[in-house]
Design a protein that fits this description.
Keywords (chains A, B): DNA-binding, Transcription, Transcription regulation
Pfam family, one (chains A, B): Peripla_BP_3
Number of helices of chain A: 12
CATH class of the largest domain in chain A: Alpha Beta
CATH superfamily of the largest domain in chain A: Response regulator
Strand content of chain A: 15-25%
GO molecular function, one term (chains A, B): transcription cis-regulatory region binding
Radius of gyration of chain A: 26 Å
InterPro entries (chains A, B): HTH_LacI (IPR000843), LacI/GalR-like_sensor (IPR046335), Lambda_DNA-bd_dom_sf (IPR010982), Peripla_BP_I (IPR028082)
Oligomer: homodimer
Distance between the termini of chain A: 57 Å
Organism (chains A, B): Actinoallomurus iriomotensis
Mean pLDDT of chain A: 95
Number of domains of chain A: 3
CATH architecture of the largest domain in chain A: 3-Layer(aba) Sandwich
Chain lengths: 334, 334
Amino acid sequence: MRQGPTITTIAERAGVSIASVSRVLNGLPTSEATVRAVRVAAEELGYVPNSVARSLKSSRTNQVAFAMADIGNPTYVAMVRAMQPVLKDAGFRLILHSTDADIDDELDVLRRLGERYADGLIISPIRLTERHLEAFAEARAPVVVIGSVPDGTPVDNVRADSRTGLRLALDHLYALGRRRIGFVNGPLDTVPGAARARAYADALTELGLPHDPALIEIGDFYRADGAAATRRLLARTRPDALMCANDLIALGALDVLRAEGLRVPEDVAVVGTDDTDLAPVAWPTLTSVALGSAERGRRAAELMLDRLADGDAEPRVVTVEPRLVVRGSTKGTS
Amino acid sequence: MRQGPTITTIAERAGVSIASVSRVLNGLPTSEATVRAVRVAAEELGYVPNSVARSLKSSRTNQVAFAMADIGNPTYVAMVRAMQPVLKDAGFRLILHSTDADIDDELDVLRRLGERYADGLIISPIRLTERHLEAFAEARAPVVVIGSVPDGTPVDNVRADSRTGLRLALDHLYALGRRRIGFVNGPLDTVPGAARARAYADALTELGLPHDPALIEIGDFYRADGAAATRRLLARTRPDALMCANDLIALGALDVLRAEGLRVPEDVAVVGTDDTDLAPVAWPTLTSVALGSAERGRRAAELMLDRLADGDAEPRVVTVEPRLVVRGSTKGTS
DNA sequence: GGGTTCTCCGTAAACGTTTACGGCTACGCC
DNA sequence: GGCGTAGCCGTAAACGTTTACGGAGAACCC
């Protein structure tokens, strides 16, 4: 772990100035002899440039940060996985922030951007407050938000289309003859919870189905919460299908339906959301609305790269198309 | 995105020198008046210290890197998830490298450590070559390896105990009356593949069971490969249990067994390895050997922090205890 | 031979911090 | 009053790069 050589060390050994060393290493025009001398010296010393010093001079860190609630959540895993190669190919490192959906923690990440440890931040806030919007406006580096922000917010934005997604799911259930389609949602003060509540209501309207509050239940976005919410819902009414706001909720619903002796999909069809890796593993395999997590991650990374290349471009909004992946929980017995 | 204020800006506004500003901001003894003036100026300007400049001076980045094959793999997700809070609490950021199990890529990450963009590297190589060992020895910053390295390698090391883990699984199967216990492994030139092959053989010996090569099959560590390997195995012999080298392989095995009309666990019991989030979701729920991914991640982060605090301590080896999580694929019908 | 132009290179400043060093002031003491 | 000491603070150097600037020398042309 010895102190590594610097361009000064190389300069001495090669008998040239540090400016020449820098020029050679950066491929600027230099005489053959100098190039050779520097190359040899650098090789012999095992020189590796110090990225911190370079960053200080260039005010570029070649790092991009991604902040999300919980890296254990398959949706975020899919995003990270998709971002990684895009950033890596462009020579950027990826910094991960898990915020536990803590608003102060998220705001802290935004504020810390001022420390310039990263060139930009991709953030996927689960709740979106006034303070977030202020922080976006004041951010000291480009921000890309995954999840809808109000028009006019000065950030690039990647959106899922919950509306179309839920519409696809409900159309599918309707086509299968289901008419009492329940909805197990996450908290309404979250970005996805709010979006999906609206989307569900709109879809019912468009299908000409009645709005029955008894068919709606809310829990958190985890399996146990989904199970509890489903239990509450079943205690008061009897749906012939359950739309769930994410796959974990859907797994909880499957648990409860099975425990109650209800067959899936014969008695109750179940649809999840996000189409995570869990969906094809569940039993029955889970029909799920793919909101394009990977795609959203990829696009967010691309928006960030574009922004870093041209800081003055207009903020862009990208919407990712949803897709319905039909599996055993609504159709057949796979 | 205006240029942020620096200590020079503050110094001018407060009418003091930059040294005084620095002293105040770092809590070094200073007169009341100066402290107040600087605090006020910093507050008014919305000053945020530049971490790059600080790093250059202190040669500390407060960043730790983690390199693994694929962030999509649940084992690594568990590790990252466990590392994150440990590092965060100590004031370190986490940098993620996905190497796609590409050896050159891994070595590149090790070499790049010389750029000093991170204070240390946690790496979980899936294969371990001579060149890795050389690179560990030459690394310009502390390295913690997850996965066994030969004794004497100058790095801190966190190990899983495949041997005990497989022993637990085979004891369990043996106690259930299974005697023809097949093994679907991953590639033998990988660290886990090799370790588990040895562990399986040892466990058979200790149980006094015959070594039947027909019961062993090798594929890659993914669901489809596990399915293919299981198909090959079933084509030539008939086991009453299948030990699988990870959960994805086990899922593939379940797929094939179901397709062949074999009941799990009545006809063939199945055990996975790693106890990922997929295990409790599968059908039947999957008995799995938990090798403590989260625990390994946490311990690796702790070793790194210790090492950064005291660079001269002896390299340490930590072994994480395995645990068998019994579920429906070996017992009962949950 | 003197001017012009070009190529190559070295000097030095700059990026934003931290910190060693020494100067200044005020105070206490003999 | 002179001296020593303590407290506070400013100057400047340093971290390892990149890069503007200008000087030295060669080559070329008239």
